[in-house]
UniProtKB/TrEMBL annotation:
GO terms for biological process: cell adhesion involved in single-species biofilm formation; negative regulation of bacterial-type flagellum-dependent cell motility. This is diguanylate cyclase. InterPro entries: Dguan_cyc_DgcA, Diguanylate_Cyclase, GAF-like_dom_sf, GGDEF_dom, Nucleotide_cyclase, Rev_trsase/Diguanyl_cyclase. SMART domains: GGDEF. It comes from Treponema bryantii. Gene3D superfamilies: 3.30.450.40, 3.30.70.270. GO terms for cellular component: plasma membrane. It is an enzyme of class 2 (transferase). It catalyses: 2 GTP = 3',3'-c-di-GMP + 2 diphosphate.
Length: 373
C-alpha cells in the first residue's frame, strides 16, 4: 500500500514537473516571439507599412480574422483616425474624437477591454456605434508615456475548442505587443511629421529625393520603368495678389489634395517648393505616366475652387520624364527631376495648362550640339 502511494505521489510530481516545463517552454517561446516582433517594429519606419505589419502580427498571435488600428491624428491631434481601413469607396476617413469618453476609459483602465465590458462601463458613451461597426471582440489601448496614442481593435476570433474568450495570459500577451506597437507608431509618426509638408500634407522635397534615389537603383536592377512628373500652378501669384495669401494657401492645399487623390497608392507626391509639386510613379512607362499627368491636369482644370464665395479657375502645367535603362539611363535623381522640369518649361512656353513629355532624344541632341561647340 505504501509502495502504491509512493508510486502515485511520484507520478503526480512528475506530471507537475512536466506541466511546469511545458508552461516555461511556452513562456520562453512567447518571449522569443516578442523579441522578433520588437525587431520587426523597430526596422519598419514607414507609417502605413508599420500599421499593416502590426495588424497581421496581432491577427496571427491572437487568432482573429481581422484587426483595425485607430491612430491619433498626426497633424491636428484632435481625432483618432481609422488608418487601416480598406474602404476605397469613400474619401472620408472614420474618426473618433480624442476627448471621447471611450478614449478616457481606455486610458484610465490601461488594459484590453471586450466590447461588452466597454458598454457596461459606459453604456451611453458616444462613438460606441463606430466601434461596433468593426465587430470587435477586444479593444486594446495603445499607450505611450501614459498617453493614449491609439486603439487596436481585434475582430472576430477563431474559436479554440469552442471557446472564443481570451485567457489572462493572452490579455497580458496582447498588451505587451500593444506596448511595443505604440512605441513603434510614435517613432514612425515623428518621422512622418518630419518628412511631411504641414500645409499640403505631401512629402517634402528631401524625402522625395531619397525615395527617388532608391527607386532609380531598383529600376536599374530590375529593368523597370519609373516616371517623375513635375507640376506648377499657372499664374499662382495672382491668387495671392488678388485675394490674399490665405487664398493662395487654399489653392495650394486643394491642388495638393487633387494630385494625391489621382495617384495610385504606390505613388508618392511631394511639395517641391512654392507652387511646384512632384510625383514619383513606380513601374510606369511613358503612356501610363502621361495618362496620370493628364488626368491630374484635367481634374484641376475642371474643379470648382470656391474661396469666400469666389469661384476660382485654377490650372496647372506639367512635365514628364521616364527612366529607361536603354533609352534614358539618368545618372542621378537631380538629372531625372531636371528632365521633368524641362518638360514643364516647354508646357509653360507653349501656353500653359498642358503636360509635355521630355523626349530622351532631346537630351542626346543637346549633348551633340554642346559637343560641336
Amino acid at each position: 500500500m505504501n509502495r502504491k502511494k509512493f508510486s502515485d505521489s511520484k507520478d503526480s510530481s512528475q506530471q507537475q514537473v512536466l506541466e511546469q516545463t511545458i508552461q516555461y517552454e511556452k513562456k520562453i517561446y512567447d518571449l522569443e516571439q516578442l523579441l522578433d516582433i520588437a525587431k520587426s517594429f523597430c526596422q519598419n519606419l514607414d507609417f502605413s507599412n508599420l500599421l499593416e505589419s502590426i495588424v497581421y502580427i496581432c491577427m496571427a498571435q491572437m487568432h482573429v480574422l481581422g484587426a483595425e488600428i485607430f491612430v491619433r491624428d498626426l497633424i491636428t491631434n484632435e481625432n483618432f483616425i481609422l488608418e487601416t481601413s480598406k474602404d476605397f469607396l469613400s474619401d472620408k476617413k472614420t474618426m473618433i474624437p480624442v476627448n471621447t469618453a471611450v478614449a478616457a476609459i481606455l486610458n484610465s483602465e490601461k488594459r484590453p477591454l471586450t466590447f461588452e465590458e466597454l458598454k457596461k462601463i459606459c453604456p451611453n458613451c458616444e462613438h460606441l456605434k463606430i466601434l461596433e461597426t468593426l465587430n470587435p471582440t477586444l479593444i486594446v489601448p495603445l499607450i505611450q508615456k501614459n498617453h493614449l496614442n491609439g486603439m487596436l481593435v481585434l475582430q472576430e476570433r477563431i474559436a479554440i475548442e469552442d471557446d472564443a474568450s481570451y485567457s489572462e495570459y493572452e490579455l497580458n500577451q496582447i498588451m505587451s505587443i500593444a506596448s511595443l506597437a505604440s512605441v513603434a507608431i510614435n517613432n514612425a509618426a515623428l518621422l512622418e511629421m518630419s518628412s511631411t509638408d504641414m500645409m499640403t500634407h505631401l512629402k517634402l522635397k528631401y524625402y522625395f529625393f531619397n525615395l527617388l534615389t532608391e527607386a532609380i537603383d531598383a529600376a536599374f536592377l530590375n529593368n523597370q520603368h519609373i516616371a517623375v512628373i513635375m507640376f506648377d500652378i499657372d499664374f499662382f501669384k495672382k491668387f495671392n495678389d488678388t485675394y490674399g495669401h490665405e487664398c493662395g494657401d487654399f489653392v495650394l492645399k486643394s491642388v495638393a489634395d487633387l494630385i494625391r487623390k489621382n495617384l495610385r497608392e504606390s505613388d508618392v507626391a511631394s511639395r517641391y517648393g512654392g507652387e511646384e509639386f512632384t510625383a514619383l510613379l513606380l513601374e510606369a512607362g511613358k503612356d501610363e505616366a502621361m495618362a496620370v499627368a493628364e488626368r491630374i491636369r484635367s481634374t484641376i482644370n475642371e474643379h470648382d475652387f470656391v474661396y469666400n464665395d469666389q469661384h476660382l479657375h485654377v490650372t496647372i502645367s506639367g512635365g514628364v520624364s521616364v527612366f529607361d535603362a536603354q533609352t534614358n539611363l539618368v545618372s542621378s535623381p537631380n538629372e531625372f527631376v531636371n528632365q521633368a522640369d524641362q518638360g514643364l518649361y516647354m508646357s509653360k512656353n507653349n501656353g500653359r495648362n498642358r503636360v509635355t513629355y521630355f523626349d530622351p532624344k532631346l537630351k542626346s541632341s543637346l549633348k551633340s550640339a554642346n559637343a560641336k561647340k
